[in-house]
Amino acid sequence: MSEVQLFTPPEPQILRVATYNIHKGVQGLGPARRLEIHNLGLAVEQLDADIVCLQEVRKMNRKEEQYFDHWPNVPQAEYLAPEGYESVYLTNAYTKDGEHGNALLSRWPVIGYQHEDISDHRFEQRGLLHVELDINGKRVHSIVVHLGLIPGSRIRQIALLQRFIEREVPPNAPLVVAGDFNDWGNQIKRMLAGFGLFEFDETRGIATYPARLPIAQLDHIYVRGLTPLGLQVPKGRIWWRMSDHLPLIAEFRL
């Protein structure tokens, strides 16, 4: 009599996503400012995320490069990518000394990427970074955002985001939208829910800003077509020294 082989279904895949505003890799003001990009490189590796969405990432800055002795000789996104990760960066803002924008670091292969300008007025240059990933044969779309400081700007930028998603992301494709939303209330959350984007909402008191004494959650990870499982924020002196924001980490079931 032959032995019966029991079939064990594969474990559902967990996708770990982090978002982090890195404050351009520098903390402090004037002569007291310090270079934190090297510590941030170690921190990003510790997050152990499949997808890391970064805001305020410098491609280059001539003034800071001259000021600090150990400024990396490659763009920050490339420098921060752990071994084996792909890095994608596109510029949002140009200044007299350089440029900065959003970045995405991925443990999974990048299929393609693009940038969309969502600036609302000439005093704030804002954009979104859209990256398509191949995660175990499944196409997953990820959008990194950094919204404006003015409430009316954020509302208009969410409307632009909605139109972009309708145009560029298939309705049945898993979608992650993460970043610094600069929203101190729930208006953006309600707007995103209106077109199917939700975040893990069973944890209270998740605050990411300001890093030293966090009182508000400005950073969020919203998804469509994925099941939110949990949310966490690393805390402690080592984290608040590196940026004015704390990182946010979320897990989802694919």
UniProtKB/TrEMBL annotation:
The keyword Protein biosynthesis does not apply. The keyword Hydrolase applies. Residues 18-245 form the Endonuclease/exonuclease/phosphatase domain. InterPro entries: Endo/exonu/phosph_ase_sf (IPR036691), Endo/exonuclease/phosphatase (IPR005135), GPI-anchor_lipid_remodeler (IPR051916). GO terms for molecular function: endonuclease activity; exonuclease activity. GO terms for cellular component: membrane. GO terms for biological process: GPI anchor biosynthetic process. Keywords: Endonuclease, Exonuclease, Hydrolase, Nuclease. Pfam families: Exo_endo_phos (PF03372). PANTHER family: CALCOFLUOR WHITE HYPERSENSITIVE PROTEIN PRECURSOR, PGAP2-INTERACTING PROTEIN. This is Endonuclease/exonuclease/phosphatase family protein. It comes from Comamonas suwonensis. The lineage of its organism: Bacteria, Pseudomonadati, Pseudomonadota, Betaproteobacteria, Burkholderiales.
